[in-house]
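new request in #modeling-help
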Amino acid sequence: MNKPAGLTKLFSISAVVLLLFLLPLIIGSQYIMYVLIWLGISIALTSSLRVISLSGLLSIGHGGLTMIGAYTSALLVMKVGLSSWFALILGGVAAGGFTCLIGFPFVRLKGMYFSMVTMFMTEVILMVSEQWKSLTGGSAGIMNIPRPDPIKIAGIIDIDFKSYTDLYYLILILVIVSLIVFYLIEHSRIGRSWQAISRDDLLAESVGINVAAYKVLGFTIGSFFAGVLGAFYSQFYNVITPSEFGFFFSIYILVYMIVGGRRSFIGPVIGCILLLLIPELIGGLGGYRPFIFVAILMAVLYTLPDGMASLPTRLKYTDLGQWFIERFAHA
Amino acid sequence: MLEQSIFNGLMSSGIYVLIAMGLTLVLSILGIVQLAHGEIYMLGAYGVYFLSTMAGLHFLPALLVSMAATGLLGIVLEKIFFRPFRSDPERAVIVAIGLILFLQQAVFLAVGGVPKSLPNPFSGVINVGGIVIPMERLIIVLGALVFIAVLFLLINKTKMGQAMMAVSQDRDSASLYGINIDRTSSFAMFLGCFLAAAAGGLVGSITSVFPGMGGVALIKGIAVIILGGLGSITGAVIGGFIIGMIDGIIPVFFSTQVSSVTGFVIIIVILILRPRGLLGHE
Amino acid sequence: MLEIKGLTKNFGGLCAVNNFDMTVEKGEFVGLIGPNGAGKSTVFNLVTGFIKPSKGKIIFEDHDITGKSPHAIAKYGIVRTFQANRIFADFTVLQDVWAACHLTNKTGLWEGIFRTSGARKKEQYTLEHAQEILKFTNLESMSQTFAQNLPHGYKRILGIAIALAAQPKLLILDEPLSGMNSEEVAEASNLISRIWKGKTTILLIEHNMRAAMSLCKRLVVINFGEKMAEGLPDEIVRNQEVIKAYLGVNINLA
């Protein structure tokens, strides 16, 4: 336990969090808030996909889970009149519950096959919502989903979530909470079991680890958060249609995760910033945007197998890196 | 009415089998989830379009040339994009995703998103025992049967076919027996893309050709493989047949709502009872 | 301690194990030997839960463990090693053994996530347990080496250490000496002997006849999925059928 290093880390993280909370006061633009909300949603979704991957499961079906959360929340708020805050949690419960129900037979499948099945499940979920028009509105989806319920505490707080700034704070809190939860779980006994399972699941089984149960647990936790974020998304974007949660949704999240670095905790953050934020802020690329995306993707895949997050470690071992360390780290 | 729907079912089966066989080959021999298989299918269709409009070829020669060209393109793609990631299925999936985005966008920018139609020389109908069958659809069924037969002969009677089977079962041991993994992978990729292009060209001839047409093909292909079992060509044939017949027959008797879901529901049921598919190993 | 009754496994048309009976008493050191393809691995994949039997019963300390899953069987106290020598890649040796201490570490879910002092004490205990095992298996000096960088012989010993971490009552070793040179065989045999003297019951599956005979106190011979003979090593060596079965595949009994 390295006390000084641990403290510096905590200090710098707190500084970043503080900055993020103060950001709307520095940057007034609603457009930037909008972009940052998208970034927040993506970061949290990608991190939840990463949680699933910790036990070795590569899912191409995250879109379906997000969609379950979005539709559950929208329907509960609009048809049952439930509070949006309950709907947020229940969106997660629905997605997590779904995974728990169907997860057991699927987690036994070999890696590639499991990925294909998750992709297939998303298609099924999409198809059900397209066909069950009476419940889900079919391909047209659901419109006019209200923003989150206002928070009013007499005299002190009056948030009506009409501006993007309010939503920004909400997603910021959601992202922080989910990252904290993911971090704690990953560094607990559960996380260590996942580490063993992802390296060799037969060996893990032979030393008493219930591999199937742990895999379903990871899958369920990741799904729960995907559902919560889907619910948030429905309350933020106010319109949801089946097609936007399909194959491309799932693969984009997967790409953010792998490009950022699946092994590293902040990999998802890096991946989203690199592939989402930077192109968005540069803007004006039009039809060539997918090519830039693919170019970055390929560049990282071919040069940094462990994703962008491994860049510092990689650089450390180059000659240039060694020179740098000698010059500055011994000051 | 029933006979018509049975025939439509056969036609769909033919297409699904072609897609799924190609995908299975690439899946089990290269060991990669080749998500860009749908884009290969799309390229095959566009190949026929260009060859028939620019080079003025008739449909059948255009189709065959397009199939061969797509197969060769596949070999190039395999060498550049999939071989470096042979032992890394995770990153191979991402590469395939990159290819999907690239190919779709490239075609879209090059030719636009307006659907094109392919010339179809097989007009008219044929009357078999009272059933009226459009020629163009009959060609699809026959074409599919021919390719299925050719593939089975290839696998069982040729050395390369046997090599492919060996690699699909155990790549490491196969190399110990002197099988050239690189060559076998190239050949499997060629075949896989060849079949995908066939399916694309045939489907394009009766519907239309547009940049996003690969999406549905990929999903159907994966559904068939999940049903028929991973790694099994016979499974791909059986699975394709079952799903094709369901797609052909159910809409006639039930609403379209029910029909789209039926195929999927059956697959889910099979998945839960027998997760590795009807004929899958392990 | 372990009772196998009428164990049968059919793979399609092939009968891999046919009506196999065997017992292992507590504290014994038993060897299961037989020519290649005789069914040794199948038997013990069946016992450890990695394959489900077609027929028969497996009873361990009065518990019926037939067809149970491997992790449950490990909890009962049967732990195995793997012939293909499985280790957790890109972990250090210490991390490998620590990861295998899953059964030792009884931290509850809640305390684990919230890092209570109780959890930390248990983690410390688990770490010490892992270090003790490294000491016992003479791997202590390599505790910071990455597992995949170990020389082959030491990797196998690591495999045994991993199994030990799960605190087995019955330890089943799957051809632990294969691919080792004579020096490594000696060291591994010494380790296995010490494990047995530490009151762990051992079932050894081994192809290397010489080692099996010198280590095991009793041998069971399997061929074509059926029990062929059983008895003391001296008796087995003189058993004509056994000699025939082995000489048929060129094994030196001397």
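bot summary: Residues 29-248 of chain A form one domain.
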